[in-house]
Design brief:
alpha+beta; four-stranded antiparallel sheet; 7% strand
Amino acid sequence: MGAARTRATGGRRGLPWLVLGLWVVLLAVAGPFAAKLTDVQQNRATDYLPASADSTRVARLQDRLPGGESTDLVLVYHRAGGLTAADRATAGRQVAAVAHRHTLTTAPRAVPSADGTTLMYPVTSNEPGTDEKKRDAFVDDVRRAAHGQDGLTVEVGGPAALSTDASGVYASLGGPLLYTTVAVVAILLILIYRSPLLWLVPLVVAGVADFLARVAAYGLHQAFGTTVSGQSAGIMTILVFGAGTDYALLLVSRYREELRRHERPYDAMRAALRGCGPAVLASSGTVAAGLLCLLAADLNSSRGMGPLGTVGVLCALAAMLTLLPAVLVLLGRRVFWPLVPSYGSTPKERRSLFAAMGSSAGRRPLTVLGLGAVLLGALALGALNLPGPVKQLDTFIDRPDSVAAMDTLAKAFPERSAQPIEILTPANRADATLAAAERTRGVASAQEGRTGKGWTEISVTASAPPQSAAETATIKALRHRLDGSYVGGPSTQQLDLEDTSARDRLVVVPLVLLSVLLILIVLLRSLVAPLMLVAAVVAVWGAALGVGGLVFGPLFGLHGADPGLGLLSFVFLVALGVDYGIFLMHRMREETLRGAEPATAALTALRTTGGVIASAGLVLAATFAVLTDMGLVPLVELGFVIAVGVLLDTFLVRTYLVTSASVALGRWVWWPGRLSGAPAGGRERVPEPVA
């Protein structure tokens, strides 16, 4: 008997060390691949668009023309009082230097503005090809060669310069995004745990999970060609820290409780994992299922974000259910110092904020439910104030050199666009296509370019500014008139982005709702409760978008909304919001199984899980709020909407609306399951409580 007990004790002591050792080996083997994720990021507009889009086909066909894909720049020389002869000479010398150092497709020719203040030099090269690093190096070298002096301003714009500036922002996301996220999570964990050591454990484990997620994401790209963009990689990091910390909060809360019941930390952790493990698995599975619905999106960037987000959530889950328990067991009770939960002790009774909130919801459930629904509906009306699709020039928070150049050109050349519309037409129809393009309303000029592989390139200059309503009308007219040809270029890429995003919303949103609903039905063994939770998160999404509509323009000064904002915010808010619903409803179901009346079960569930849900919601909202400090409008808007949605879900919907609806419905909330009938005491085995 004594020998068996000794072996069991040795096994308990050895298992955490074994788990820790396996993680060390895994990280050592996978380590060299983590840094490679940055190298495979694709941030060109055509990498975001589907292969079927006209603008994508134009870019692919241009790759096959002599010289490959072209890199287009515009050098802009400007003096407010009018260019001098010395200015023109300086411009000529600098442009000649660029032509000497790089292979250009044509010799750059000066285009003066009518008011004499601006000189424009279009510069095109096939030297960089499709290599983003070579393109960025080319743009940077041109910027070094073209510089202003004595009141003469020189700006480098054009599609390639805009892409380089966008890549610079995405490249800067890795470090600042990670450091800011870690700092925000660390501060919140210190406040939540009030311990000098405990906060560090889940934070380090989340960092390990993020490292592993980067390796897995690189593997997905290599194995399946999954699109990896700066945006999707950044959001994956946010998900790892946000969702991972949520799981850690739930596990640590339950572990602290079990340490008062069990003498050995190993036994307490086993009980904690049995108690909250099913809820964590269910919630992570729901998030993964929602994210994987993005695979049905036609937009490459959205479709790639689905697997990357799923990988992030699953890596966070694996780390929090294996590595975190092992480390906590090895550190023992002292990790909770100074608030150490001793064996056999009872926690101090404290007045619970969530008990008070639940009581107010329980006294007048229909009134609370009605007022909450009115509030969410009123906020959702703000979505009508969302600005139109953001223009390419307005996607930067801090306007870089490329945007300044395009602004200067728009003012100096109001009669023409500084951004070309590219047409690829069969070579045997090039003359007819050129003539038809010249006759199209809104076209200022058209010029035939390269020919090869059976295709001819035609560059069109519109008479309207880029991405204006007039230019959009010109693009649509060209596409309608030039049957058999493809119309592309930067402005058409944005147009295709809007059209594809609209199509994806119609396809992906129903899939997300259906998949999440089915998982909830299986988990809660009810139809009413899942429908209630899904309706709640949809209402939260609408309200969060409405808040965005109220502040994006008036408060933030943003001039447009990203076309993908609606879809991505919906997927994340529905998938992540249902997480908290699972924690709450799972505990409510347990209390009902124990024989509690519906109202009592609902209020008990809120009292026991409210603190953990609130802490998790704060952490998740804060991690997504980090995106609002990034330099691109799509990231700022997405981070803001998700952060607002999570806070609304945590402190309004879960605490008041779901609780009051459950009280009002009574046992009908579990219809048509067995719990909707007579009291369930003794009918089913009572599981361990979740929190």
